[in-house]
């Protein structure tokens, strides 16, 4: 009888431990998922900021106002065409 | 007696135990399904997982519209253990002070903050007891008015207008579900069993639009609007080789106008239609480009109507009629077409029918059948009146002139990619019909070059490249559908370069003030767009092909440019910067076409000079230089060649 009782206790402890471990893992998973969402959102925001900062609209305005630059006339653009071979 | 009592107690206990076992068997075996379902209902729940809407990118992969996850928060102040930390967290997340006060008021039961937050901004608050967060999707767009017009708007669930609406079924993903387990306190966790279906994001749509060209067009249109006082306008840039729309900018005074009006609004094109009549007449051999008609010194009576020309001449050839945009001339020539032939020409060009680009409410324009024409309709149509077209339709028609006569199906969509990376649709060139023979198209292109070089649209001329185009100035209708005095639509449609065009650029300005002619107002915008595109590295121009079509305005300018390039190169050499991949052919500008003929000259000696200095010397002498693998100069120094000839320079020459 004592052995049966002991076996029951061991099995019950195992079941409870497994369940507790499962719940802890699920919580960790939830936290990781939350962190993933946060990081994804941050990445989207940063990429958006980079796009805005490097957009032609923003850069051209800054180049013209702060640096006094302008879009060159077509006569001031020299197109270097790649030929059949390239220099090393 | 005692034994009897003992037996009774034992029997009763055994009976009770038996009843318990029976009840357990009843509950666990016969009622198993019922209790399992009841336990599941109490302990598990299902959550809907929103599907991220597909991303929209430009042709280079730049994201124009995408979805991101934000969160809303609701707080049970009485359950929060550290109110001070909550207050600090909310302050960091820039929550309005009155809502912070409410959220930290422990007499309240439940406070929902009416703001959306980046999950990162409320990470500390989110982890607190008594705080519940709900994810919400938000659509994020590139901050460009024209891109917004084109891409449209969408809620997280559905598209409202633009491409978002037209391709809604592809952009919308499939919702997923997740099984959650609930503990005794009602808190939920994702089920460790992993039951549920993952959400499937929508397809990624890649537009044909190039963001660099789009920015350039947008800026050029804004500048033109402020310079000319126009109410609004449109620019369409099209690749005439495959019908891809590379840029589409629109401006309207009405802030409620959110559509890409280059697709949704039509206008009377005016003189920009004349080249098509010339092309069809050439095709049918009813006219030659040098054939002359009487233009009556700029005034001609047609029934009760008087037709006038701005450029007055007694007679003009067909070529001059196009170059000077003579109304009288084109009416005279177009009279050689029957009403049915005129109608078929305009119908073949796609006018009166939507182009079929995936955009809601596309304008079909207006083209009436000959049965509804008046006595002067044929003449009006030849001058670009009594017909309305959308800017996109007109650009597509000019693409036919540019590509040798084929009307192409225009496309806004380059590619559609499934969430698993599989390309489910890709744009391919699709010719709808031939509207001009290649010979007639080439003749018309030459006429368009004359429009820019000698005719009404000198403002479109580029120094280094031959371009062609046609300006148009049409009266605008006002209230009651009658033409309003002093109200015009100025337009210009150009081809770049004129020979083997890579771009068709349509510029339309609504109601410009002052010098309102298309050649004066819209043509310079075409030039501004091309200058911006040439100065940009990523504006959909095949530079290798363009380099072969460079012409020089004057030798001095070329020499100046060469000096600047050589000085910059020498500066880099002096700093010891790695030169890297030096283009083997440096195709600098040389006189061609209209440039004056220059005398032949001897190839100079470049012995002992560094490569860059040698290139500079040869260019300064007026030659084009091709770097080769060998050694020496070919032809040899001292050989007399025409300026612009190619001189091969061996990069392995001992120096």
Structure, explained:
The complex is a heterodimer of chains A (88) and B (655). Chain A is mostly helical and 88 residues long. Chain A is 73% helix and 0% strand. Chain A is built from two helices and no strands. The N and C termini of chain A lie far apart (89 Å). The C terminus of chain A is likely disordered. With 655 residues, chain B is α+β, with helices and mostly antiparallel strands. In chain B, a hairpin with a 6-residue loop joins strand 10 and strand 11. Chain B starts with a helix and ends in a 5-residue tail after the last strand. Chains A and B meet through helix 1 and helix 2 of A and strand 3, helix 9, helix 19, helix 20 and helix 21 of B.
Low-confidence stretches of chain B: 555-563, 565-596
Largest sheet of chain A: none
On the 0-100 scale, what is the average pLDDT of chain A?
A: 84
Strand-pairing-aware structural class of chain A: mainly alpha
Q: Whole-Å distance between the termini of chain A?
A: 89 Å
Number of strands of chain A: 0
Distance between the termini of chain B: 133 Å
Structural class of chain B: alpha+beta
Radius of gyration of chain B: 36 Å
Q: Helix proportion of residues of chain B, in percent?
A: 25-40%
Q: What can be said about the biggest beta sheet of chain B?
A: 7 strands, mixed
β-sheet strand percentage of chain B: 15-25%
Largest interface chains and counts: A-B, 42 and 67 residues
Number of helices of chain B: 22
Q: C-alpha Rg of chain A, in Å? A: 33 Å
Oligomer description: heterodimer
Uncertain parts of chain A: 84-88
Content of β-strand of chain A: under 5%
Total strand count of chain B, please?
30
